[in-house]
Specification:
Layout: H1 2-27, H2 57-61, H3 76-91, H4 98-124, H5 129-146, H6 149-174, H7 181-219, H8 232-244, H9 246-256
Amino acid sequence: MEANYLVVFSGLFGLLVGSFLNALIYRLPREINIALPRSSCPHCKKVINWYENIPVLSFLVLRGKCSGCKTKISWQYPAIEILTCLAAILLAPTQISGQAIFLFLFYFGVFSAFLVHFIVDIKHQILPDSINIYLACLFFAVSLINRHWTFWLIGASIGIGFPALVSWIFYKLRGQIGLGGGDIKLYGALGLYLGPLGIIHNIFLSCFLGAVVGVILMLFKVIKKENPIPFGPFIIIVGFVQIFFDRWFESWVRYIS
């Protein structure tokens, strides 16, 4: 019975967080304050009332349109809310204990940050510093408790140092920026949790995945050679597998080694 209540509570919590993530996705790349001003329609600037901002339900009641100008509301909003709700349910603690709640908040926090990063980078080709700092704090807190200091320190150093060096060499040779600062900071944050070997795996696999996807997109003429491709999603996909499916990932690495 306790587990059922926790699942329901986690799902509701996920819906609320999803609504907040939508605000982050919209405001962070535009450098708008998160707290103020109140949410409004980007077209007619009508302030959104609290009852028009209930996750998923308000979208259905409004039939996906602004109550003022009737402009269509993006399906991204309910999709993000439903996705975070499902994630919270899947990660829901099975009992009320300090450790269970801590693990839920950690994994759900990582998932939420990854989701914001993923969408913002695809739409705007930036990885906000605030999200990277948030991830770094989460990873550092867990690693400080569970890992030796050399593990997270070397991991973060490799995560920042190696991509930064490669990007600098690429700039000197080609006169173009290879990796953006947000990508390098994300590698550094992940290095705190994945450690030296884990971040090396991430760097290699994310670069490989990015190259494969880039070639496919060019072959099908979705993009041109000179078009930049957001690289953050590839780092996030590999990092997601490493963190949420760590046993499977480690087995796979041992198998191909």
